Amino acid sequence: MSIPAQQRDLRSRAIAVPAAARGLAGFYVAFGVTLAGFVLASNVLGLAKLLHLRHRFWLLGGASAAIGTLAAIIAGPLLGAVPAPVIFLALTLTLLAAAAAFTTKLLGAYLGPVGLPIATLVLLTVGNATSGAVIGADLLPSAARAVSALLPPGAAVRAIRSLSYFGGAHATGPIVTLALWAVIAALLVALRPRLMRRAAVDG
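and the corresponding structure tokens:
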């Protein structure tokens, strides 16, 4: 028995809308985790005189892991909004939180009060606007498309999409990008006291 065309159209629309909503869920999760990492680092910057650098590193790293894991559990098994494997989703979101946190910490430590607005511009404004979640990366202007996959939010959106719908076939590159942001920013933050001592000696 054939299904009338009108009913088939209604069924396809009913299926397409939840699928589109799940696709956007990756964007909102990435935005929320990026924002959480930014706020975390903003608060840690105010603890510079109270906590040793090593303790601030532990705080940033541990809180980033907690943010990523909690976000993965809520978006994945709890709400079913992101159908990626929860372990790999937690890894991706932990790296995103760490990338946002350590990059914000880096900019704040080296540039002072100007660092936070720059972090806001790079991570939250440009990063999320060019992530390719709401507007496909192929439809972005050429300049935005060039930086889309290089910034943490865009890399995270690509990893989440690959893990959710393509079996993680193209997730390695974005995950490596997130790891590089987190590790390089952390190393530069760790080197700052040594650079300041050397500058004081040379001065």
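(Above: one complete record from the training split.) Confidence is low (pLDDT under 50) at residues 7-20.
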